[in-house]
Amino acid sequence: MNVTLPNGVVVEGVPEGTTKQQVMQKAIAAGLATAADFGQPEQPQDLSYALEMEEAPAQQPMQAPPEQQRGLGETVAGLGETALAIGTGATGGMVGQFAGTVEGLAREIMAGNYGEQEAADRIEQLAMQRAQQLTYAPRSEAGQEQLQAVGEVLQPLEAVPPLAELQALASASRFAAPQATAAARQAGGAVAGAADDATQVLNKTPFQKKMRGMIEATEQGQAPQNEAAKYIIAGSGRVKKDRLAMETIKQGFDEGVVSSIKAASASDKKAMRDMMGILRRGMKSARYARENRPSDIVGQSIVDRFRAVQAKNKQAGQKLDEVANSLRGQPIDVSQATNDFLSALDAMDVTTRQVKGKVVPVFEGSAIDGLTGAETAIKRMFNRMNKGGQIDAHDAHKMKRFIDEQVSYGKATGEGLTGQTERAFKTLRSSIDKALDDAYPEYDRVNTQYADTRGALDAFTDVAGKKFDPAGKNADKQVGTLSRRILSNAQSRIPLVDAIADMERVARKYGVDVDGDITTQAMFFDELERMFGSSAPTSFQGLGEKIAETALKTKAQLASEAVMGAAKKLKGVNDERAVKAISDLLESQN
Asked: How far from 88 is each of 38, 131, 139, 469, CA to CA, in Å?
């Protein structure tokens, strides 16, 4: 038969013939009721007014549970059995607890708190509160264990996100509690161990593993993943929501950009903060905004790299001259270089003849016949070679410099050498250089540094243009404007990216501490342009924005924009909050 206790709890399977006194004693012993529930705290009396008997199939008599230590596994099983018994008996406590759990879960998801231990704690508190509102609050350990069964009830939903994580959170927090209590009563000091067990469960959920893996991979230098932008790893090792990142994304910033900001180096973050400083001042002063743009910071970063490589090139040049001076009187064989030069001239049909013991070029009928600039440059080279005497290593070094000046002079004066003539000169220079490198290792070492740095500088100057002056007052602004190409679809993008990468490679090779990433800085600047509009109102992009703003729009488009604007306002999304959000995020990364 079934017996309904005064507090509303239904006890099933009570054997026929069980007295009311026995029912009360068993109920109290099992933690299903207290003496106070029966109206007699001291001595139980007649219970006929409180018990309602219903016939039911005879079952085995109830037995009081033996007093024994429950392990973690036994506790889990007991929780499942208790939750099932209460569920089938339709008790208000279980219904209230489950309803409270669902209500709390919905609240935390809507508030964006899903995944945090604090959220799990609040859900638990609400579940207990709802349970107490519908029934009594158990005071015994057994009763408390019953109401801690939400984690087990949610076990079938383990594979369903986000309930999967909630189930793990609820289960871990509930399983650890009774285990820690029992251990503390017996041995003391075991609470920490139970907490460790709970933490291990929490950290092993699929979501935790996935996010922690993404974040740790980024910290090890891999490309940041957009999906991980909203999360951080707390001190306990658990993944939790990154409030500042979430607010930044809410205000409209791209998740990928936010993820890159969090993974950026200290110098890149400083550059980003400097860009924000310019943006904030520009919002308050139109004059300042006209003269200063966030892209100037990117430009300054590039100019700093150029100047660093330039300094290394100057040092190498000075050292190379010192080494070359030490080669005075030292032998060098340049016969191969001479032959290579003559072969290059022969390919252009330029011949030679002896005039008063000197070798002179003959241009009649050649590919450069009548081209004054090319002819003059070759004549100068022959005059240099006809000075007579055996040249030494120092003379060979000066010959290289002479060739450099010839090529540069031709370009600067407009007398430019033809393609074939310039190649002939470069062939001669390369052959002389090889002869010096092969004969003198120290010259080779210093000369390599000079050539590497010179090549990197020339590559960037070719992209930046002849008017680029790294020492100029506004070099940062000039290069900042140029840096827009880095993320554009312009054909000149690749040469610029390659030139910057080459400068950074050479700088690092020769001991320059190049921290940060130009592409990351350019991406941040590009995102500022997207969020707050072009900082160059007279640029092609700026003009494009003005045209778009003044273009005719349909009523439907205008209505749609109005709705979107109203929605953003309701959500608290605006430029002021966007600036604060990204600024707070950058400050937190300081």
From this structure: 24, 16, 22, 84
Sign of CA dihedral 106, 110, 116, 121: negative
Q: Are residues 271 and 173 in the same domain?
A: no
Residues 236 and 346 placed together within one structural domain of the fold: no
Q: Decide if 542 is inside a domain.
A: yes
- Asked if residue 63 is part of any domain, the answer here is no
What span, in angstroms and rounded, lies between the C-alpha atoms of 521 and 300?
Answer: 11
User: Looking at residue 45, what is its pLDDT?
Assistant: 41
Give the pLDDT of residue 451: 94
Residue type, 449: Q
Say whether both 82 and 11 belong to one domain: no
- If asked whether residues 233 and 134 sit together in one domain, one would say no
- Nearest C-alpha neighbor of 541 from the set 553, 557, 530: 530
Last-in-domain residue among 379, 404, 439: 439
What percent of the chain shows pLDDT beyond 70?
66
In a domain, 429, yes or no: yes
The Cβ of residue 3 has, within 10 Å, a number of other Cβ atoms equal to: 23
The angle at the Cα of 114, spanning 73 to 74, to the nearest 5 degrees, equals 5
Among 147, 176, 202, give the residue marking a domain's end: 202
3-state helix, strand, coil in the chain (%, to 5): 65, 5, 30
Give mean pLDDT, residues 217-241. Answer: 86
264, 207, 269: which is closest to 241 by C-alpha? 207
Long-range CB pairs of 63-66 (<8 Å, 24+ gap) are 64/26, 64/29, 64/30, 65/30, 65/142
Same structural domain, 218 and 119: no
- How many of the other CB atoms lie within 10 Å of CB of 209? 12
Q: Residue 54: name the closest of 80, 83, 89 by CA.
A: 89
Which residue in 314, 312, 309 sits closest to 501, CA to CA? Answer: 309
Please report whether residue 506 resides in a domain.
no
Query: How crowded is the C-beta side of 288, counted as CA atoms within 13 Å?
Result: 10
Same domain, 198 and 211: no
pLDDT above 50 (res 280): yes
Task: Say if residue 330's pLDDT is above 70.
Answer: yes
User: 3-state class of 221 per DSSP?
Assistant: coil
Tell me how far apart the alpha carbons of residues 254 and 258 are, in angstroms, rounded to a whole number. Answer: 6
Instruction: Identify the domain containing residue 589 by its residue range.
Output: 204-292+537-590
Count of structural domains within the chain: 4
Residue 124 makes CB contacts below 8 A (sequence gap 6+) with 104, 150, 170, 173, 174
**Residue bearing tokens 């990204």:** 582
Separation of alpha carbons 316 and 510, rounded Å: 10
Whether residue 262 is found in the same domain as residue 370: no
Hey, is 217 helix, strand or coil? helix
Same domain, 79 and 184: yes
Phi then psi dihedrals of residue 573, to 5 deg: -100, 120
Planar angle of CA 61, 86, 25, nearest 5 degrees: 40
